[in-house]
Amino acid sequence: MKKNQAGRLAKQHKRSGGVEGIFIESARKHEVSVKEISRAVYESLKIKYSHLEFRHRLEITKKEINEKLHRIDPRLGVTLFVEHSRIKPDGGIVEVKDLQGTWRIVLVSEAKHQGRDIENISKGILVGRNNDQDMMVAGNAIERAHKNINEIKNIMIDEKHFPYVLFLQGSNFLTTPVIAQRPDGRKVELRPSDGSLNRLDRVTAANYSRPINENYCENIFIEVNNEKIMLQTVSIFAKSTPWSAKEMFSIMMSLARTSLRVLGLSAGKASYLQDKA
């Protein structure tokens, strides 16, 4: 998003005081990317928490991630083959400067669309090698999402929050059965239990198979063999139909607010200045 567009969204937010003002002119006229929504969240955080300093960047280098790991433990972060290797989450990374002047991640967002079976069925399009099937066997492209997730886990290894949200949409991410109707009236049922169709099980390793569509920004601790282990859980939001800009904005703001609370930065300006002093 260009600077003038981001500024316009911020002004809209100030006038309206909410998400409707941000997207009423832009999001309802065209499909808004997760990058634009992340930028709008960033602008909104600057307004809501004006006593804090935020930044929004589109990538993190592997070198920076390795340096963080190495500071935690010298056995870590020692291997790097490609000097300019980096990760670029779809929505970028939103960060806040804490009381010690250190940048802390408060939101990382990605959005993936996989599976157009519902659209194809409703349009009467047959698929497959011989164009005689209602549904296409799902691919494995979603598995690439794990790379960025693992790298953000690495750079946030010492944090008590993990504000990574993954939006999934399309027929490959069903959570409930869906009935799609062809133009000739024939109905086709798409089931989340269909192994050739559903790919949610390919990503739930990132949230320890916890329920979908929940905010898991705050880390949890489990006890294994009398030792406590901290778990970083990706917040996976999935449905077959497209996510609206308003829905995504609300979810992303929720994760960002949780991050600020865990970091102890969600208090008002007076409290912040007192703590800083």
List keywords for this structure.
5-stranded mixed β-sheet; 19% strand; 8 helices; 11 strands; 277 residues; ECO RI Endonuclease, Chain A; globular; single chain; 32% helix; two-stranded antiparallel ribbon; alpha+beta
Characterize the structure shown.
It is a single chain. This protein has 277 residues and is an alpha+beta fold. It has one domain (3-276): 3-Layer(aba) Sandwich (ECO RI Endonuclease, Chain A). Helix content is 32%, strand content 19%. The protein contains eight helices and eleven strands. It has helices at residues 3-16, 19-23, 34-48, 62-72, 117-123, 145-155, 245-262, 269-276, and strands at 54-57, 60-61, 86-87, 93-97, 103-113, 164-169, 178-181, 187-190, 220-224, 227-231, 235-239. A five-stranded mixed β-sheet has the order 1-4-5-6-11, with helices on both faces. A hairpin with a 2-residue loop joins strand 9 and strand 10 (227-231). The longest helix is centred in the last third of the chain and has 18 residues, at 245-262. It is globular, with a radius of gyration of 21 Å. The model has no long low-confidence stretch (mean pLDDT 89).
